[in-house]
Amino acid sequence: MKRTLLENVVSFLLGIFWALLISSAVLLFEIFYPVGLLPAIVAATLSTVFWLLFIVFLELVNIQIEKLKEIRRQSEILNSIKKALDENKISDNGS
Question: Please, what is the average pLDDT of the chain?
Answer without folding.
Answer: 93
